[in-house]
Amino acid sequence: MERDVNQALAREFGLNAEEYQRVLDIMGRTPSFTELGVFSVMWSEHCSYKSSRVWLKQLPTKAPWVIHGPGENAGVVAIGDGLAAIFKMESHNHPSFIEPYQGAATGVGGILRDVFTMGARPIANLNALRFGSPDNPRTKRVVDGVVRGIGGYGNCVGVPTVGGEINFHPAYNGNPLVNAMTVGIASVDKIFLSAAAGIGNPVIYVGSKTGRDGIHGATMASAEFAADSEEKRPTVQVGDPFTEKLLIEACLELMATDAIVAIQDMGAAGLTSSAVEMAGKGGVGIELDLDHVPARETGMTAYEFMLSESQERMLMVLKPERQEMARAIFEKWDLDFSVIGHITDTGRIVVKHHGAIAADIPLAPLNDQAPLYTRPTVETPKLEQLNPARIEDRLGLTAGLRRLIACPDLCSRAWVWDQYDSTVGGQTVKRPGAADAAVVKLEGLKRALALTTDCTPRYCLADPEEGGKQAVAEAWRNLTAVGARPLAITDNMNFGNPEKPEIMGQFAAAIRGMAAACEALDFPVVSGNVSLYNETEGKGILPTPAIGGLGVLDDAAQAVGLGLTPWLDIVVIGQTKGWLGQSLWLREVSGREDGAPPPVDLAIERANGDFVRARILSGEIRACHDVSDGGILVAIAEMAMATGVGARLSAHPRDVPGHAFWFGEDQARYIVAVPDNASFIRAADAAGIPAMRLGTSGGGDLTLPDGGTISVESLRADNAAFFPTWMDSNRS
Amino acid sequence: MKPGIVVFPGINRERDMAIALEQSFGEKPRMIWHKETDLSGIDLVVIPGGFSFGDYLRCGAMAARSPVMGAIHQHAARGGYILGICNGFQILTEAGLLPGALLKNASLRFLSMDCQLRVERTDTVFTRQFQKGQIFRAVMAHGDGNFFADDATLDRLEGENLVAFRYADANLNGSARAIAGLFSENRRILGLMPHPEDLVDPLMGGADGKPLFDALAAA
């Protein structure tokens, strides 16, 4: 239903008075209803990054192996053998709260398209998930729907879901985070970009038909939730993984030819953003005739066509002489293929519908004059460093360990992974839970990719700069811990309302920390996504800059897992001061969420990691696990549970209180299992790397330094209990 | 023996299967698009896993009516070999080439994990490189693997010794009599739910499934 265009309507569409005035200035007249729709989605936070762009520019994006950094559909890095890895992580937070199954499913579908639109065959999916407190009545339904949605889509398209992470915190009660990451492989000389070219070239629409689903999804994703979020359910798209699978195969088949000039998926803001971005990047104009857009419903208006976020659709510019060959490929796959327009030299987007012009907008100002805000920031006050000696340990090591490994943030995620196909493709070397990073081999080659997602939101809330640094460092560490050479990251910045100075301050500080870590670790950002307004009724989430890391192994056989095997020496790499501030032990055992989080010394991080990686590749290290949530004792327990092999641990150094030594979360540390600790520790000493023997693997029990003994079987039972008990009991 | 892999739209384990077959047969198998109708020169028709036609309607129901199925029925009638795994097993039951049906897993959730299979007979072209009673590991990855048939059919299958594999430890999908795989009466058609083709390389966690493909290659 078209309405009169005025400032009040513009406000409903998410444009403020100043932004609407800018629209009037650009157009030189009152825009049509459809034109206002185009401006409002292109200038939404989701599409324009208007609050975040000034900060994102601070991130390092270059390295000799980076082929395409941020600005394309996904980041591209060279990985050797003439191949490129193409990857990105993207949020689908708002839709996943409103409609968990479809929100998560279409999140997976959308990120897959960002990757295969560049010419890559997707080889792995990961997902970083944050949910509300398990005690919140809504959380269970959201977890169930999100997990089913990720599985329902990923399993069907046949891309293995190999990793990810899950946190629970009450701050996500009204606003869960669903960040999906896809990694694909392409030949370095066959990468497809979105800049349109060739005046007169046909513009082709392929994939699913357009319906009324998802209209204004990008605008919805750019606003806070109120209590009426249920009413926004129609703005959530519906996914069809079967069509996506056909689209992947058809596009890759066409990409093997020389037919494509430019290609872009229709994601957020649908046909509008793909047409505007393709023509804008190419510096050309584009004319579309909506009468040729395949429609699922009758009577759709130009506005609905332009703003629909129906899934599984792509827009391409083809060489005219290849059009019929391309059509034959899409017909083979039973997909719609329609010429809906052509490239012009006008520098304008012209949209026709039923013979009339529904929109006619100059592209340069639509893109260049998009709002850009340097919003006010307030620094997060620094918290006091806690003295571990003044924090009482009421539980002791044995009970403390049991409580930690059973808690929702550390318990086994097998219930979740077991619903994701992690092996399709036949190249999964390290499945979920087997190693610190997933390892996926490249078909027909020795080479493998290592993949991880990381962020510790409680650190980010306490100190966004250290937290941002830590998220990048932990991703780097997890790739290192399997023996991979870390190459690059994708970031998914999930924050609250950017119009609040304290939130914008979190964002700016997190970027500062991330930038420092990327710089120090030669680990640039090549793609990313920003999700703001993650608030419900004024309550923001924990600042969550989720990092997706990618590394490479020249030989997949060199990858190590985290599982202990018998009769190895267990050694900790890195210094342990016993940092308890913001630790999981402090939260789960003492019921406190305070203190400064552990600082990350990037020079030490790099030195320790480079040492560990070299020793993995030389074959000395048989198992490796980074020390993160829960500290050393949890790390060793996880190594034991992975294979069912126990360990006997010796006493800790006297200068650190026991609970702080075993549960503290100092950074830049790894637990490694080696056949001969003496020569290993000598080598570490010679390299100036702190290394200390903690015990020996073997048997079926974990024997703690205070004499307590727990069978690995009972640890596993405690660790496995939470998810099935919570999810599969008392089903409503 | 010359193998060919049938590809329906939505099938997604054809690459895994091609790798496993190539490893044992020494050459790449022919890929057969579902609209082809000529299977001449093919001795072993392999229908891999995936979600043919999105598993819409019922798993395998639409694929069972695809153009290639006429040729597959003729191949079966001639006594040709057919291997259907996961969605391939579902398609074979929908096509009437194997009895029973695969229902939703008892848990109503997708199951993706290793499982243990027990070999029930070894005098077939598929299983002769296993030992009778041998337990081997395979990858389970399905939402609808819960084998169902009426009691009379189950009794007949047991009586005629047509059960190929059973779940040896946990029967997680709830299959009748823990049946994971079935032979046709002439034992030239095998359908099974878990994926031996995803464990043919120690680098991916083991080569437990390799004897199945080696046996076919040696036939």
Low-confidence stretches of chain B are: none
* Quaternary class: heterodimer
> Can you tell me the number of structural domains of chain B?
1
Tell me the name of the CATH class of chain B.
Alpha Beta
The chain-level mean pLDDT of chain B equals 97
Proportion of beta-strand residues of chain A: 15-25%
Query: Beta fraction of the residues of chain B?
Result: 25-35%
Written account of the structure:
The complex is a heterodimer of chains A (732) and B (219). With 732 residues, chain A is α+β, with helices and mostly antiparallel strands. Chain A has 25 helices and 28 strands. In chain A, the strands form 5 sheets. In chain A, strands 8-10-7-11-9-12-13 form a 7-stranded mixed sheet. In chain A, strand 12 and strand 13 form a beta hairpin. The mean pLDDT of chain A is 95. Chain B has a single domain, classed as Rossmann fold, CATH 3.40.50. Helices cover 22% and strands 25% of the residues of chain B. In chain B, strand 1, helix 1 and strand 2 form a beta-alpha-beta unit.
